[in-house]
Amino acid sequence: MRKKSLLTVTTLILMTFIFTSSALAYSFTGHTWSKTNGNTYNVSVKYATTNTTYRAAFDSAVSDWNSSQSKIKFNLSALNVSSLNKVGTQDVDNPSLYGVCITYPISGTAKISYFTADLNIGNPNVVNYSKTRRSTAGHELGHALGLDHVSVLVTAIMNSSRDRETVYTPQTDDINGVNALYPL
């Protein structure tokens, strides 16, 4: 009886270690903002859409990222008309494409000059589900921070296979990724 109990406990402990997702699952795009140590880097962003439904998704995603880490802060406002950083929509008839983010580096460097992030309104899930919109907006802003898709199964907004209706805010792995990318 004692051997059976010990075997059961040992098996459970091993399974816990084997099936626990990696704490270092985050991945990087290779581009970063020109942040100086000890300072928060502020990124002014403008809307490239007038549709309030899609603006609200990016408003929530900006708030989610800004409240989860202190390294890079997005300042999304209609008043930022001169900013090259913009969020909006694209209409691509591809139900597997939820959004897209393109970062444009400063010539000859890996430092981000500006970015564009769009939700795909050609995807019915983006059109019909508010949490999917928020999750997608947060995912695309993660790319704007310098995070890439994770390559392992982990609960993260940067996981392309996540359930967008339940994972719609930055998760521990996403935040760890930002902190690793911008350590000070």
From TrEMBL:
Key word Lyase present: no
UniProt entry keywords in alphabetical sequence: Hydrolase, Metal-binding, Protease, Signal, Zinc
Annotated Pfam families: Peptidase_M10 (PF00413)
GO molecular function: metalloendopeptidase activity; zinc ion binding
GO CC term, one of those recorded: extracellular matrix
Name listed for the protein in its UniProt record: Matrixin
UniProt record, GO biological process: proteolysis
Signal peptide span: 1-25
UniProt domain Peptidase metallopeptidase: residue ranges: 29-184
